[in-house]
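Is NAP placement plausible here? Inputs below.
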Amino acid sequence: MMTNTQPKSIIVIFGATGDLAKRKLFPSIFRLYKENKLSEDFAVVGVARRPWTNDELRSNVKKSVEKLQSENADVEKFASHFYYQPFDVTDVASYQQLNHLLSDLDKQYNVPGNRIFYLAMAPEFFGTIASNLKDEGLTSTEGWSRLVIEKPFGHNHPSAKQLNEQIRQAFNEDQIYRIDHYLGKEMVQNIEVIRFANALFEPMWNNQYISNIQITSSETLGVEDRGRYYESSGALRDMVQNHMLQMVALLAMEPPIKLTPEEIRSEKVKVLRALRKMDVTEVDDYFVRGQYGKGIVEEQEVQAYNEEQSVDPDSNTETFVSGKLMIDNFRWAGVPIYIRTGKRMKEKSTEIVVQFKDLPMNLYFNKGKNIHPNLLVIHIQPDEGITLHLNARKADSAATSTPIKLDYCNNCGDKMNTPEAYERLIYDCMRGDATNFTHWDEVSLSWEFVDTISQAWADKKADNFPNYESGSMGPKESDALLAKDGFHWWNISKNHTLED
Ligand code: NAP
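Reply from A.M.:
I modeled the complex. Tokens:
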């Protein structure tokens, strides 16, 4: 199944008039087309309520891929593969009509009944769509049917479980592709390779040599026009339950016995199971929440979260989370993994810092101070690369060392375009490779972990919001979280050097 490099399928996008389709899905499918990863035997059907025509959809598709055009890609020809059907997700007649269209397109494009149903719509419709697809026979074809689901997958463990049960009545687990777009990022996929393909790191990847790991995912944007959604979500549900915990799992998992989706998943699940559970009363010892106040970001004055559109002026929603995770297993006992994510922070970047333990004895000094610890930094975005921070001799001074860095950047110099996360994930789904999608077991364990924190924060209103200035790296309590363990956050500047 994974060997076909030009898989033939029809992609049905539910929510084709929406933002995700326009900004991510159409451009990603176009890039696959340009790279010759799609044969001419494919079609995309867009559905939504708006009474668009094929031509209207095609002109929107052309607009959204405008910037990606090149001589070797015929945009007109690409757009001619797109079809539109006005759709009411609750009306069975819409599904019957869609089924006819798909059968016709199967014949026209020589596709053997392979269908991807991509739900780029609000999650409240997922269950209805999944069961109607099955009941109206859209999944009963000669070929395969796969369901792609966007975040958020539920609001907490009970709602995620209910949603999963609904979907599972129509699709098997191996037909469900839950998107976590971080798993499509080049350097997130590279974590496993860095770890398991380097004799240098793997023997040291444990509590004997690593003192702590830090994962930061910061944004400069605020909530923009998504205040209503964000008020019911917050940074914990929006970022920690999915992306941050997925990165933790990849960093901490044991080497899988094979690189199959099942083996990798099983190792990730073990990490999530080993996360130290907290009681609601202990959450404050491990987690810090924040909400941005006004400030200056990228030289612009910006308003506070509680002044944003559709946001309660007395909002208890967190726009920042930092936390200390402990993985209670043999490899990681005693090593804190710190995570931090927030909006309206100083820089947009996602980075992982692995800090190695200090040497047992210091023979060299750096400006009169102890030498720097060795750090391995994995740059996830916007730069994609790794930097290894070492110490070397300072010229002409015998007992003095100076920090140096070995820097590898995948996309810095020539700005080589690595594939977009969505491009990779859509292609993986077409080929039936579920490695970089989240299994229900992972979703379930992540929600169980996060639910304790949300409960603690819902029970007790934050009395200090807003508590960090826009353009900063979060509230001071986040620094204190590490300081009490004798650590501090490593902030990495744009040229990959360490900020003091
Ligand atoms: P959006 O811009 O609001 O689009 C929603 C789509 O659903 C529109 O095409 C809308 O079209 C359609 N729709 C709404 N109600 C419908 C109904 N009753 N029947 C048929 N179609 C209906 O939302 P989005 O930003 O694209 O997000 C879509 C999903 O992706 C959400 O689950 C979101 O959480 C997730 N997501 C989005 C992003 C992003 O960057 N945008 C990132 C991660 C996850 P009509 O109005 O024409 O019906």
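Short version: The longest strand covers residues 397-409.
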